[in-house]
Hints:
heterodimer, A: two-stranded parallel ribbon, B: alpha+beta, Ubiquitin-like (UB roll), five-stranded mixed beta sheet
Amino acid sequence: MGAGGLGSPVAMYLAAAGVGTLGLVDFDTVDLTNLQRQLLHDTDDVGRPKVDSAAERLSGINPGVNVVKHETVLSSVNAFDILGHYDLVVDGTDNFPVRYLVNDATQMLGKPLVYGSIYQFDGQASVFMPGPETPCYRCLFPHPPPPGTVPSCAEGGVFGVLPGIIGSIQAVEAIKLITGIGEPLVGRILLFDALAMEFTTVKLRWDPACPVCGRNPTVTQLIDYDVFCGLAPGETPAEAEHGVRTGAEVST
Amino acid sequence: MTVTVKIPTIFRPDVGGRPNVEANGRTLRDVLEDLDRRYPGLKGHILSEDGGLHRFVNLYVNDEDVRYLAWLDTRVEEGDTVSILPAVAGGKA
């Protein structure tokens, strides 16, 4: 999910490792300001669809990989169709509506989700397995912050190397899940602080009252995630924060 | 009891940019009150107006989520580490 900062190391390492089919979901085009962290793309790619430049990079790394391009915004309408084709989903999204959508869709489809998130110099990573008694993103954060209370990465910025570290950890977890080795980052969340150069792991518990993966789920089909996150339908998070329509999603 | 509170980047402007600060108290509630005296504004990012924890910010005493301990009444010991984990959305673009 997302051929950006997190998606770059994830996709390149999975291609290099020989993962048979890699699906890329991204509606965006390459911007010059992306290139300090999105190593899938080159300066020559500015203005091109990210899925196109990403597919070329991945085929260059390993021509044996089948790269499937989904140049679209993941939504409640298409999520099952797109994600249903894959064995595992890696979250490299940049906004809360799609993050909750990917969480709910993977829980409902029974797919593992490798989670990563970044802000300025801090990163988070975890693995959300489907099924009972293992936590999902909603067990971690039952509700998103109200729009405008958390600065977007467009406002706060992202240290360019940070997604390289968190994305590489997501690639590690994806390869562990695919090959069945090691202890996946399930029931734990890894926190990384680049400025202090500290990794911390805290427990992540399954919430029996979780509306998606709890004992008595109340969310059993995909909902309108813009409304859930306090946005008007079709409004991007950046628009909500700035109170204006910008005509294009602000890069985060 | 003096504990170390780890401050995520997003809240560091409230504490003069420091990654860790110290605070005193017997319970987590005491610690947050002490932090609020030292760094006005920080508590508002963690607690809602009714005094409960925001559902998009988690608190941990050492590695345990306080929602599975005694919430704000969770007792802290000398040398404990309190971590603040906010939901952040960055990643893709």
